[in-house]
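PROTOCOL LOG
Step 1. Enter all chains and additional molecules of the complex.
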Amino acid sequence: MQRAHVYIRTPALSYPVVVGTRLSSELPALLDEAGFPPHVALITSAPLAALHAGSIEQAVQRSGRSVTRILIPDGEAAKSTESYLAALGGLTKVGSPDGTGILALGGGAVSDLAGFVAGTYRRGIPYAIIPTTLLAQVDSSIGGKVAVNLSEGKNLLGLFYHPRLVLSDVTLLSSLPARQLASGMAEVIKYGLIADAGLADDLERDADRILAKDADALASVVSRCVAIKAEVVGEDPYDDVAGSGRRAILNFGHTIGHAIEAACGYENLLHGEAIAIGMLAAVEISHRLGIVPRDITGRVKAALDRYSLPTRIDASMGCSIESIIHHMKFDKKFRDGVHRFVVLERIGSARLDARVGPELIREVLADRGAPRG
Amino acid sequence: MQRAHVYIRTPALSYPVVVGTRLSSELPALLDEAGFPPHVALITSAPLAALHAGSIEQAVQRSGRSVTRILIPDGEAAKSTESYLAALGGLTKVGSPDGTGILALGGGAVSDLAGFVAGTYRRGIPYAIIPTTLLAQVDSSIGGKVAVNLSEGKNLLGLFYHPRLVLSDVTLLSSLPARQLASGMAEVIKYGLIADAGLADDLERDADRILAKDADALASVVSRCVAIKAEVVGEDPYDDVAGSGRRAILNFGHTIGHAIEAACGYENLLHGEAIAIGMLAAVEISHRLGIVPRDITGRVKAALDRYSLPTRIDASMGCSIESIIHHMKFDKKFRDGVHRFVVLERIGSARLDARVGPELIREVLADRGAPRG
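Step 2. Run joint prediction.
Step 3. Record the structure below.
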């Protein structure tokens, strides 16, 4: 069975992302190698606990560690300040002050919250992530960004705080709804487009196996995405626009995608669905700037279609071109009315480009079906 | 007029601590040098705002920056999670998302809260500190530790997060109550004992001028303490017991002092008052271990008396030897029933010692007047 170890290198530490199947048997040894403390607080939601917590808690106990469960709300509600304070309250009741680490079991919302708890409790305690969605396995579990929402906006509280270990078990994806799998595939397709033409080819060739959740196919996809993100994050650990700016290419499709998410409503579109539309718009912009030929647009659209991802803004979503443009003004890549926009150079390569103004974005959004006004 | 610049060096950045008098005239240039953003959120309490905010806000505005005041509760209540969330709410209403920095005006509680806000808002925004107490100028403003209290315990939330600038204006101490000045002097005396015999001598010689808040005398004292803490913190930025452990010497008097604070009640003793008793106990322990002669105990007691600091545990404080010992068990320097205790080697030098068990601490606490049982 396929098993990959990818190491994330940060200025402060290096840690493994282990990708494979039925990994809970390896958890005890991996916790030992990570120097994990003797008391473990498992932070997860009730539905995920029902599916997966039993075998994971047994594995933690086999390692000689005690484990206490801290349940947080399901979905984005996990990232509220109320949930943050409740999780901290739970943590104060666990084990000895110096001997507790956090294990996050869930999607990006769970690990964002758990990582922020871990990074701020007693100036930082160890944590590990077992991501349960494809999106979390290929994206949010890697890179050290953790966050909590304020009522005034998403992710307004946050830190760079890295886990000691990420255990990406593709077996856990067997219970993932098809729409969630597709949402994760949008980020997978992004990695192919910006950094790995071979991956882009394979996603077209292996679509049937991936959509059927074939474990080997998923493990191959996840480990290649993790390797790409690990390399980019290693070059630009703090997403420093003034520095190498390398991490900015991970934003391919996200400048418009985030604005679509915010304008159309988070309840209407999953993250990957908004990113799919944003990526196709970014490819179209790259074409109109004369950087890529027309047929690339068709190929990207076909790939997104293959994974049942949306490529148009439906009028029923209730978001207009101007509402999307409005939300782009809050993107930190926006400077002086011109976006430092990530354009596609060819399949497998992307770069920042400063020539994208609001008019070009309006035109492309209109092509994607967004109503004017 | 005396003016000292001490640089704090951390793995990520280096920043100045400027010590002197009437420094608000220098604030515009210092904010520019620190690369401070165009919008400034001044975090302070209402009483401090009434005393000092006007001239500081004018200085910020002279630098071409806008300034918004965010008021937080006075005293330790500044560090509650409610105060944290309220300050964040205020921050979301200030200026542009990328262009805001925080200026903390106050004692250690204000800068602890403001630093935690700065460190967690949008993964960290710049902040600066204008400390208004002697304790904050010589201790809490230096070293990058920021924290918020949970109902379950003090400082349970926190980070290492450094300011871009500390402006320690001893003129601000003119409004400081005598008891607060004395509390700060306990930490000043600590620096003399652990690291600077010349400072210890000067504190005895210049006591009249210091107690009269002579600006030159205070500026000299503060800048020497800052230089000592800067050197220790530079060697051990993350208070890493497994590393150099150098920062541990700053805990001289604090292992017992913190336990006295917690056992006797924070409303009964100021931090420096508890530390004064803790330091005398630590000197007595150093003597009983045969490390320093008896006359050192007398000299330290005389210095503490000179600054009207307590050296005995009054029965009215309601704390017993056993309640103090109980609280020491939660100190992270406590391992296997034996404290890694900071002992005095001579005036001007301290080191960690592992031979201090609870029986010796009980004896010394009894000498300090603490009731048994």
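Step 4. Note key features.
Chain B has 14 helices and twelve strands.
Chain B touches chain A at residues 11, 81, 85, 88-89, 92, 97-98, 116, 119-124, 145, 147, 150-153, 156-160, 330, 332 (CB under 8 Å).
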